[in-house]
Amino acid sequence: MKITSEEILHVADLARLELDAAAARSLVPQITEILEYVDLMQQVDTSDVPPTTHAISLKNAFRDDVCRTHLENAAALENAPEKDAGCFVVPRIIG
Question: Could you give phi then psi for residue 88, rounded to 5 degrees?
């Protein structure tokens, strides 16, 4: 599959990427090679391959829930640059 620099510029515009015409022209052979490889992969017979979500089977890798004591307020605020009445002071970001 051959791609044109105009198509590259169009896709770059859709992705909100700044790309000049010279850069688009330099990408044509690289992207064309990638698309040809994808076309080659489309020809591989995968009818006997079951659908998979992962290359290797993994079970949930999360740790077990363990009840622990919470961090005391004083300890949580210990390294805070600013605090007031037991709370963190942060910059105002909404009106």
Answer: -70, 140
Domain assignment present for 61: no
Instruction: Return d(Cα 8, Cα 66) in angstroms, integer.
Output: 52
Q: How far apart are CA 28 and CA 12, in angstroms?
A: 13
Q: E strands along the chain, which residues? A: 83-84, 87-88
Radius of gyration of the chain (CA): 27
Question: What residues have CB less than 8 Å from 83, skipping those under 6 apart?
Answer: 77, 89
Domain that holds residue 30: 5-42
pLDDT in tens, 3-58: 999 999 999 999 999 999 999 999 999 999 999 999 999 999 999 988 888 778 77
- With respect to residue 31, please indicate whether it lies within any of the assigned structural domains: yes
Locate 85 and state its tokens. 């009445």
* Domain membership flag for residue 70: no
State pTM to two decimals: 0.50
